[in-house]
Write a structure and sequence with these properties.
Blueprint: H1 17-27, H2 46-61, E1 65-68, E2 74-77, E3 89-95, H3 108-124, E4 131-137, H4 150-156, H5 175-180, E5 198-206, H6 211-215, E6 219-225, E7 227-236, E8 240-241, H7 253-268, E9 276-285, E10 291-292, E11 295-304, H8 307-328, E12 331-340, E13 343-344, H9 347-360, E14 364-369, H10 375-378, E15 384-389, H11 405-422
Parallel strand pairs: 3-4, 3-5, 5-15, 6-14
Antiparallel strand pairs: 1-2, 2-4, 6-13, 6-15, 7-11, 7-12, 8-10, 9-11
Helix pairs in contact: 1-3, 1-11, 3-11, 7-8, 9-11
This protein binds (2S)-amino(hydroxy)ethanoic acid (HGY) and manganese (II) ion (MN) (2 copies).
Residues 140-141, 371-372 line the site of (2S)-amino(hydroxy)ethanoic acid.
């Protein structure tokens, strides 16, 4: 082993399972609804800030160096920048924000497992060719501000994909909430990383599906991540009295929205133009029982692993919406679009994950991800890999989302060993 690869070696890094599970438990109480158990920490909300503060506090208490970039991403490393020879990062992470009423592991587990790996490396003192770092990306879900993958998009430099003034669903600016998270909308360029500054990106995540549980595997080696298009559609009609306005001549935005929701469902259903298609959010104005709605905003979430199918589904949707507008006398406009392409993960990193599963005697299998992840954005600048752990009952984005504690710990162990091998740091 050359001196440059391993210096000041003490015991090799090891995951502290108890510490990881305690942090998962604590973080799982932030933004939690006592009645339903659901977690609501929309990106840049007060609950999201509370979760971020907890992770920063834990990292600093562990003696790690913490910084927050202009996108609000939290970066954790063993030493402050400049105190060791700058080496490319072996980046690991995920997100702390959640959907409304979601689970306590989606994203959070990946951030805490990455923190555990960086802390274990710092405690062991091992050095390698790359520097293990943890990142908590901002606004992966896009629950409040509909710019999903905000933090990872900035990190890879996709600034032109983002609106100049990002607004939430009610039209409020991101500027203030981003500043409260330590970011700066006018300095996003300072948060962009050059490809040569990252050697690889690893993300561990709950599967959010049934495959691992059904097939008796404890680790999922993700081979590809689905593409995803999210359209925000605005339907404009005319408000009126529900009792005195004749049916003929109405421009009922909610009746038009009802047709639009069915159109979206058929894209993936009867028409099989894409794998899945969902309208998950509907904002109605004035949302009054005895008033005809004049404005409705809805989100259409289309997914597939084939880019051409995503494009076909999107154009079919726009064509059908023009027809709905004609039939209902409303105006229908796509007011925002976000596209995340499907990506394949790195075969070399996948091989390392499989090697570690064999060494640990942990059953594993490869599988695609139907969920989107920051990894598919970070793939713009570096090879990526994802490790899944089983979701009990295959559910996610709901309060019942859960994973066996032993699976959370073994997943972190696989992440640690993969990071060490990828960073050329000797393992046990
Ligand atoms: O929607 C997704 O696939 C992810 O949870 N952001
Ligand atoms: Mn999610
Ligand atoms: Mn997630």
């Amino acid at each position: 082993m050359s001196q440059s690869v391993a210096q000041h070696r003490t015991a090799p890094p090891a995951v502290n399972g108890g510490r990881l599970l305690r942090r998962v438990e604590k973080l799982g109480n932030i933004g939690r609804d006592a009645a339903t158990g659901g977690i609501t920490r929309e990106g840049f909300s007060p609950a999201d800030r509370e979760a971020r503060a907890y992770v920063v506090e834990e990292a600093r208490a562990a003696g790690l160096a913490v910084s927050v970039d202009a996108a609000g991403n939290i970066i954790v490393r063993a030493r402050p920048a400049g105190t060791t020879a700058e080496r490319p990062a072996l980046l690991m992470g995920s997100h702390l924000d959640t959907v409304v009423g979601g689970g306590r592991l989606d994203g959070a587990y990946g951030v805490l497992a990455a923190l555990e790996v960086v802390q274990a490396c710092a405690e062991s003192g091992g050095h390698g060719r790359y520097e293990p770092m943890a990142v908590a990306f901002t606004n992966e879900e896009g629950a409040l501000f509909p710019q999903p993958f905000f933090g990872s998009s900035v990190l890879v430099g996709r600034l032109s994909d983002l609106p100049r003034e990002p607004l939430d669903h009610e039209g409020r600016s991101l500027r203030g909430p981003l500043a409260q998270a330590g970011g700066d909308l006018d300095a996003l360029g300072s948060a962009v990383w050059l490809p040569e500054s990252v050697a690889a990106y690893l993300e561990i995540h709950v599967e959010q599906g049934p495959v691992l549980e059904r097939t008796g595997n404890r680790i999922g080696v993700v081979d590809g991540i689905t593409g995803r298009t999210v359209l925000t559609v605005e339907i404009r009609g005319t408000a009126g009295h529900a009792g005195t306005t004749p049916m003929t001549g109405r421009r009922d935005a909610l009746a038009a929205a009802a047709r639009a929701v069915t159109v979206v469902e058929h894209l993936a259903g009867t028409r099989d133009l894409c794998r899945v298609a969902t309208v998950g959010r509907l904002d109605i104005h004035p949302n009054s029982p005895n008033t005809i709605a004049d404005t409705v905003r809805l989100t259409a979430d289309l997914r597939d692993t084939v880019v051409a199918r995503m494009h076909a589904a999107e154009s079919a949707l726009c064509e059908e919406l023009r027809e709905v507008a004609r039939q209902t006398g409303t105006e229908i406009e796509v007011v925002a679009r976000t596209h995340s392409g499907p990506v394949s993960t790195s075969p070399e990193l996948r091989a390392l994950i499989e090697e570690n599963c064999l060494e640990l005697g942990v059953p594993y299998r490869s599988l695609p991800s139907g969920a989107g992840h920051d990894a598919q954005v970070v793939a713009d600048i570096t090879p990526v890999a994802m490790i899944f752990v089983p979701s009990i009952g295959g559910v996610s984005h709901v309060p019942l989302e859960d994973t066996a504690p032993a699976d959370l710990v073994v997943g972190a162990e696989v992440l640690l060993r993969t990071a060490l091998k990828a960073a050329h740091i000797p393992t046990r």
